[in-house]
Amino acid sequence: MCGRFAMNKETNQLVTDFVAEGGDFRDWRPSYNVAPTQTIPVVIESAKGGSDVTRRLEPARWSLVPSWSKELKLKFPTFNARSEGIATKATWKGPLKAHRALVPATGYYEWQKSDDGSKVPHFIHDPAGEQLVLAGLYSWWKDHSKPEDDPDAWTLTATILTSDAVDELLHIHDRNPVMLPESWWDRWLDPKVEGTQELVDAAVQAALPVAAGLEVYEVAPVRGNGPQLLAPVA
Prior knowledge:
By secondary structure, the protein is α+β, with helices and mostly antiparallel strands.
């Protein structure tokens, strides 16, 4: 799974990296300790306002809420979505069809259970310092208690896909996020490509070499924020 991650790039750099248009990021800053329901940058492709399809970098609430939900806060966690059987699940099958996203990350945290029962945090990242690009889904949720023309009536929400952990990460956790190589970015985002279980399964296979090449090291307890959270324990 992926329940905490770091994203320390500025949004203008992300716009350049993904050749995207920038969204409204007044409520987002680079963070070394991103938690579910907080704002994260996501890359999506859509025809906003009836225009041609464009690639945009947008701020999203990290926990997907399907459009049919009456409440923004659900009774079950939706910051991660299991890739297996995803096309048949009510929460995910709608967004999967054409609302797929990329979630950039510097790396993510996972907790390994020790012999004494405590959980030891580890940071997982690309050893060359390249950003990870996680496969995600997005959904716009409307607050029907607000006027139709109120811009705050709409909230962009997102989730990160996970799969069985590769052998190299299995000692840390039995799941890992689906990390897409650059050759897959366009295909995953394209709303004209129908999102099927076959597409997801192919994406998981393409992501295996990325996950297998990651570096893992122990870090201090993940509290607060700042670059010190990424420092390995001596």
